[in-house]
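Just wondering, does anyone understand what follows?

——
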Amino acid sequence: MKTILTLAGLLLINGLSTDGLAGFERVDPFADLDSLPKNRTFEINPARRTMSPEEMELDHHIQLGALSLPDGRTVTKYAFDPVQNVIIGSATAYQVSITDIADTSSGREIQALFINWDREAYRPDAADIGVWSKNFEPLVFGYPKNKGQVPNLHTALAIDKSRSMWPYLDKVKTAGSQFLQELPSGKCSIIAFNQLVETLAGGSLAFVNYGGQTFDGRVRDVAPEGQNTDFAALYPEALIEDEDTGNDTKLVALMKAGKWGIPCKDGVPFIEKIEAQGSTDIESPLLLALRQVAVSQRVFTEDEAYQHIIVMITDGGSASTREDHRKEILALKKKTGAKVFVYWIGKDTDRSTLQDIVDFEMSDETGRQEALEGYLDSINVFTTEQQVITLLK
């Protein structure tokens, strides 16, 4: 996969993976990025987050050689899912990621991504991997000879359209449109946000106005520049909601009718109309996306279920933060297992609001088109090159 980490800090992929800081590579982006062939993949590193005491102790033992394959080789790279109590390790991979775990009729099905030392996604031999519980007990697993089908994917693409994004928005719109057109399968929800959250996910356009209040029966923006906005007049076909109006009933109805999620390519016209204005609230779009995931997991059966990823492009910061929103985001993130990718664009980005929430992130101070397109392309690799491992009952 694609890797960028610069000497000057122009592009910085932050990562504190469970195997420590191993694997960081410093390169000159202007010498290396422009010369990379189109089929070369970049690395997506896990976001820096706070490791729990359990994870720190587990990592310490693995670094000391606690895991080994049946032929005696020591596991050098691994991924750990503390909720599902699963460790996947390899003696040959450069990086291992658990991308999804779901219960099936034949056992727990794990989607995993393996990166080789050429920074490319690959399929390791069965003899080169192992699966264990957190107590280092080996687990019996099935590993088909072929990679298997691309998972049924739902992608939520959230684009920051606050006023501070105007220097980068044209590049973001171009790269985002290309990303939607190249996604291999599944459905999408498109989100444009500033202090409000505007969504296109099937059915009518929705204004999920977590930052708004209701005045005289009409939902209005509390931000000074939008205080007199009448959303019902501005978006006559939209489902207007304020913070106290739950969207579960409407979402369930859309999902059961097969109207939730759009073909990803159909989101391009919506993106092309985005304009930079307003302030920033990066919690509300993430909360909306995770609520959609939670409802989806209640509505769809195992065979119908989606694997969910959320991709956010933002210059960071938030006009205001709410502890109750953060707690709900953390709870939904843990419950749903959705993967969150964030591309931080511009200088002096404030990433503290999403600390311990983001799974994979990249920071780009220069707003280079190639870097953003490379990151989004690597997410495509993330979704299409997953390997299926089944824990047998």
Remarks:
- The two ends are 33 Å apart (CA to CA).
